Amino acid sequence: MIQLKVGVCQILVTENKEENLLSARSAVKKASENGATFVVLPECFNCPYGTQYFCDYAETIDMSTPGKSISALSAMAKEASKLILVVESKFGFLGSIPEVEESTGKYYNTCTVWNTSGELVAVHRKVHLYDVDVPNKAKFKESDVLSPGNKLTTFETRKFPEMAMIAARQGCVAMIYPGAFNTRTYPLHWEMLLRASPAQNLSATYDAWGHSMIVGPDGTVVCRSEFEETTVYAEIGKFSKQFRL
């Protein structure tokens, strides 16, 4: 049975990319020092969450010519490996940034996964883009700027449980959803959505809601944060032994 201590980092994001990367580095370093073997950064952690920002902050996901965020993520992974005593294949971390694909000119909300050698081991482009228009409350359309990906899984995908069901049948022990959830449309929905998927399967101009959570296979909230910058932790293996998908 896989044993992981997951650290979910919640950081304050500003319009200064360098400051955001330093905040992310500090959060990853602290989580690693506290024994986390898998660290999760927020959705679009390197820039304010808004369609007016995505193009200016976007980078290519190319290790041959890495941008600031990609270089920083690789360095964070290497630094973390010096702080914890784990087998390399059992450590990793991920975070989402705006991506531009130079060959097509398309933009994506892209999550990258790294190992302790600083190697990029997986890339996911957000599939279900967030479009909402609530009169007098919120209007936001990711699709005005971003294109959808075709693989698993960031933020809006939590609303589509079929993907989690398929992953569970293939032996997946945890689903990770980085999300920049807003304060206008989803204070009531956030916890419900996070708890519903595991329960079903038994296993600025934009104000982020925060409230990062780690949820057990039965929908129980194991740990949660509030609005402040912080990191929450949980040991995944303990819950995998108690429940079977």
TrEMBL record:
One of its GO terms (molecular function) is omega-amidase activity. GO terms for cellular component: mitochondrion. PANTHER family: NITRILASE-RELATED, OMEGA-AMIDASE NIT2. This is CN hydrolase domain-containing protein. It comes from Furculomyces boomerangus. InterPro entries: C-N_Hydrolase (IPR003010), C-N_Hydrolase_sf (IPR036526). GO terms for biological process: asparagine metabolic process; glutamine metabolic process; oxaloacetate metabolic process. Residues 4-238 form the CN hydrolase domain.
